Known about the structure:
mainly alpha, Serine Threonine Protein Phosphatase 5, Tetratricopeptide repeat, two-stranded antiparallel ribbon, 25 helices, 2 domains, 2 strands
Amino acid sequence: MLASSPVRALVERRSTAGAVVAATGGALVFAAFFFAQGTTLSSFVWIGAIALVAAAAATAAVLVGALPGPRLDAAGAGFLAALFGLAVWVGVTTLWSVSPEDSWQYTNRTLVYAAFALLGAFAAALLQRPAESIARGAALLLALLLGYALLAKCVPSLYSDYGRLARLRAPLDYWNELALLAAVAVPVALWLASRRYAAGAVLLYGAGLTVLLTYSRFGVALACLAALAWIVLAEDRVGSLAAVVLAGGGAAAVFGIALTLPGITKDAQPHAVRAHDGWIFAFAVVAGGAAVAGSAALARRRLPVSDASRRRIERAAALAGAVAGAALVVVAAVFATRIWHAFANPVSSQIGSDKGRFGSLNSSNRWTWWQEAWHAFVRHPGGGTGAGTFQFTDLLLRRTSLVTTTEPHNVPLQFLSETGIVGFLLFVAAAVAAVFGVTRARLRARGAERAAVTALAIGAAAFLAHLVADTDWDYVATCGPLLFVVGALVVRGSAPPAPARRPLLAAAAVLFSLGAIYSLAAPWLAQRQLASAASIAQVKHAHAYDPLSTDVLTEWAAFEEVLSPKRSLQLYRDAVSLEPENSTVWFEFGDFFWDRKLWPEAYLAYSNAWKYDRYGPAGTPCGRLDQARHKVLKVWPPSCPAGRPAATH
């Protein structure tokens, strides 16, 4: 039976729209990988704006009946609803946040991630074989990312900061996030090996070498677990085992060579050393890749093996895995106390960023930060301290001047600390719904599509695990692409076009996206304006963009100090009212009183600065706090010899 003209038109329109959405998603992922520049606000603004516009356009097209929408079960709908609900709640915390500006920016960040997930859902609804299409795109983009990461080690001019710190991190600017994506690449590479064996083995080799050069202990563990999960779930376990052995061996060999090259793996090396060793490393990387590709091509000729051989190999591998697992459990039980002491014992600074990290079980202060986050939750269980404000909790509770952080390096605990029980439950609801949705997607899939879903699902699981050990929510380069994948996996297919058009809702979606884009851009515009401000008018312009910025208020107050001290005083009061736990703002407020010899007021402001950061400027022995105390109370602390104050700024 020939399809009717309307049906053919709908199919053609859906195919075209699917290609457009997939291309947009791929372009966004490419931009997030290569242009996000870590947590740089300017890059996040334009990447987030494109994601919001694309998601709004797709939503509007569905609402006016031009395209079919995604068909969601309870898990898929729950995932998207919880994610958008989390964005709303994060915004609500701005009302009581100790830093409304940071909470505002965290709202923008969470909303952009929700837009990535929604765009993934639309892509899955419009593509014929969504998992395979996304897996192919993921393989290509991850290959480009890993290739560039290794190339930047070979060519020093591509990433000059390797002269300071050698850990592999370009182009994401953070080694642990690059390690996460390398771990995600492992199941994608093994899926690719099931189709193009040599290509998949080479991608796996690149992922293994990359994760080793990041020196990320958790990243290496996740990569190994991802490979194990694929081998357990794959149909061709023998071929996957062979690929892991070949690629892993090649990666380990080249990593060993890299350890002998100071310009590749040692900090503070001059450009000449990095350039010289870069050529040697490039040759080793290419030679290793060629060896893996050649070995994989030879191995492929012997695959698949007979059923009897397959069973023998699988039993041997299972036995070896069981022995290794049992040995690990025994060692953990015997040395449990020592392991826990190494993990939980705080250090005066972060542990070294060299290969010696692999021999340490220290949490690199994470246990201390997790305790600080829990303490903040206990103090503010309902709504937390406000999204994005952990830096103030850390400054209040830290035990040394050498280590500070802006995040507790545990995303669920961060939401618990900053957004209270409500935000935490929304985050957990999104995670649980994603797990159920992805699991059901794998159970529904058949044939080649099932293998692609499995690879993407393992990558999503690695992302979920990594969230409990690092600052992933700050990085659009990881959260954006991976939530796009999760959004695609929780979709059951496409729903028929809506029988009734809803143009008003479509217009509302577009208007909402435009408002969200302004929300994204306003803090960035304020920062740009403030950076070049040479007059009160320019500072006022910055304040109009971002009325929640204490940086703008204190800069404005500094301009007003000579012209209108009374106005300057009010601006400082507004700043400490916005961020009552910001030690820096309190210290600047104290400087205002100090310059006017208002000693009691200066003493009170400096005391508040010390209260919220004992290791900051207010904690300097014989500094301005001690001097103001002396002027008011006529006493010096025992650590400060009378009459010998420290130099003031």
